[in-house]
């Protein structure tokens, strides 16, 4: 046992390897599409955060005499809506609500879903069966229908809309979390950790979490676009944000009557939803490949 | 309680069946009898080699004896104390009995540095983090990986041979007495395999270890082992001193297995396969002697009666070696 | 004329950040009715060489240079339909994992029959008849029943036999085998090796057999070509290679192998170090850093091929020193 017991207070300079997250960043930066998507996402988030400083006009102030001006009108670069409000300002301010409704339910669902899924995957047995079969029940309904039904049952309003979206997103996240955890649990290093006599909690903390949270998170980011579209849908149906608050889905709804008068202006909120969700999707795709160590 | 003569580990009646298919009510339809009544002991300081083909239960046996899988039946006694009993809690047993797996990459947490992986075990057993890291670095140096270069690296930055050295260091960090090597060198290239085998031989002497060495490569098992156990479909076919088993195998299967090794003599190539066919599936194995379906010496009685492992130091489970078994070649039928 | 003729084969993988020189100037000829074992460790380029013969390496991520002639055809010049006809009909391949070659959703009989019909035309019934004949030939028990089985319903050894039957379905002239017995159990491996030896003789196939196991090479091959870091470092008749190895790497491999004479617990003569990084090869001989015969010149000068006995070629500057190896 000489090697182990001889106390050699020798200071060795350890060659630090590139840390995991740094290597992820390096790989991510090489992926041009993902970087472009990240810049778009960042721009939208910044626009949403500082909306009231950026917006050139008051998004609520309308004048009936300047309703539905086309794109490129002087003073209204993106035209005006059916109540004569500046579209550019409304779109910028509307990003806040849309992002809030896109991101918050996913984040909450990520927290709850991860805990349930990881527990189900790691504990296995009857607990796994109980959790997963419950989750399966939610899969019986299409997500749009489920969101609408829950929102309708809970009553219109921002909070209820977000709550119903959270419920919609928990099952898929649980499923992914359970699948990833089951995979990791079967790895030899987890078996080796069990052979070390470590408690289940320690094994989860040291060996499981680090290896499953990444993939679950990446999956969750891909749900943000879905959430935005569903949220817009709820607002469109009058179950989410109330007028006159600007929100892309709601704007799409109120402008639909103008589709024959100013089709391009009416399409703008839809375009915003489209671009944002695509950007989030490409961002999460890039993140997923960057997190693959062996690549 | 623990004299040098006490076996380090002794296993009796070890069994584990896995249900592979269940009906609607969850009752098993098909059962894999992975390990089905296995007895053996490992003496202090020796290396017991376990050989056999896929599905023979050698890896399951390793996991059962370390209680990584809960056995359905059987008793495991470690240095005179029952594992999990009052004198030897499971956690302490796990410190003293460690395992190295075949897949060097899957055995290491990809998110931990090499030194963190090695230091994890001692920390579980109460060693302060600083000392655990120190021990990890000392062990890295011992297994031939310069700590200054390797301690901070991640598993994917190492070669297969280097990772397996790390896995050996990880197991040694517990200061174990028993090390189970489950196909630990099988995935390595031949030139690297020889290096790791040399290291294992040295470490055994230096740390006073006892090995259970599992491999499908008979040459390697022969080189490493003092005693050898040959398994077939979840049962022990033969167990005995390595020289005796390799020179004069008593079980027909052991003999066939040895003769299946490729010849190294170009003028004396194998001309006829020692046995035909594939090993049967361990799902619903044949009745009686499990080898009778492929055995050239099998007689009707072999399909009815299961042989019992007997014969002392060089034990064999074969009706030909059981007096009065009814097999025409049975030894000393009259005596 | 040789059935297989490789000259100056270079394969460089360009998909990663740095080009990986997997094969560096391989010359190899295999005659009709001859079996050559390509022996080497992972990363030695043995499988890449084999795949190059069927142009199976990913074309966009690799650069292939040199001349590849199989049964008189210039493989590098084959395009589209001609390449498809070449694969399977002129030269076919068996793999370590039958699942790479066998389609899980079709029965084995259907797959073989389809291959026959595709390459040779004729009726489906004729294809089935050929499949049945082949199943008998590779000695699959109850061949009529097994033709209707799916790959997953067979054991590993039977699957491998079925893959051999599939590979021989169109009576190719060249058989390429990529570690076909590595995943098999010992008692099954020897059966498959003997079967391959027998079929090779019967069909007069030119066979290239890739393996990492010297014992397997001895069982099947007439000649052995030892590969290291993308190059054939020694080639010769099996007896010569086993009894008078002249390249230090071959000598090391033979010594590191635990044979009957190896005493238990005695130190093995391991080759120190590890194979070089193929994207950053050292100058001179690639084995020099691990070689106990190496001299300063070895890390400067690239060794040329030298005949040390009839048909026995070695790439080593120090081949005079390895004649009577010390120790």
From TrEMBL, chain A:
Belongs to the binding-protein-dependent transport system permease family. PROSITE patterns: ABC_TM1. Pfam families: BPD_transp_1, OppC_N. CDD domains: TM_PBP2. This is ABC transporter permease. Keywords: Cell membrane, Membrane, Transmembrane, Transmembrane helix, Transport. It is a multi-pass membrane protein. The chain crosses the membrane at residues 33-55, 106-127, 139-170, 216-239, 260-283.
Automatic annotation (TrEMBL), chain B:
Part of the ABC transporter complex GsiABCD involved in glutathione import. Responsible for energy coupling to the transport system. The complex is composed of two ATP-binding proteins (GsiA), two transmembrane proteins (GsiC and GsiD) and a solute-binding protein (GsiB). One of its GO terms (cellular component) is plasma membrane. InterPro entries: AAA+_ATPase, ABC_transp_ATP-bind, ABC_transporter-like_ATP-bd, ABC_transporter-like_CS, Oligopep_ABC_C, P-loop_NTPase. It is found in: Cell inner membrane. Residues 261-286 are annotated as: Disordered. Residues 20-258 form the ABC transporter domain. Belongs to the ABC transporter superfamily. Glutathione importer (TC 3.A.1.5.11) family. It comes from Falsiroseomonas bella. It holds the Pfam family oligo_HPY. GO terms for biological process: peptide transport; transmembrane transport. Residues 277-286 have a biased composition (Pro residues). It catalyses: glutathione(out) + ATP + H2O = glutathione(in) + ADP + phosphate + H(+). It is a peripheral membrane protein. One of its GO terms (molecular function) is ATP binding. Its EC number is 7.4.2.10. Its main location: membrane. This is Glutathione import ATP-binding protein GsiA. Keywords: ATP-binding, Cell inner membrane, Cell membrane, Hydrolase, Membrane, Nucleotide-binding, Repeat, Translocase, Transport.
TrEMBL record, chain C:
It comes from the Bacteria. CDD domains: ABC_NikE_OppD_transporters (cd03257). The keyword Membrane applies. InterPro entries: AAA+_ATPase (IPR003593), ABC_Ni/Peptide_Import (IPR050388), ABC_transporter-like_ATP-bd (IPR003439), ABC_transporter-like_CS (IPR017871), Oligopep_ABC_C (IPR013563), P-loop_NTPase (IPR027417). It is a peripheral membrane protein. Residues 6-254 form the ABC transporter domain. Keywords: ATP-binding, Cell membrane, Membrane, Nucleotide-binding, Transport. Coiled coil: none annotated. One of its GO terms (molecular function) is ATP binding. It is found in: Cell inner membrane. GO terms for biological process: peptide transport; transmembrane transport. One of its GO terms (cellular component) is plasma membrane. Belongs to the ABC transporter superfamily. This is Dipeptide ABC transporter ATP-binding protein DppD. It comes from Falsiroseomonas bella.
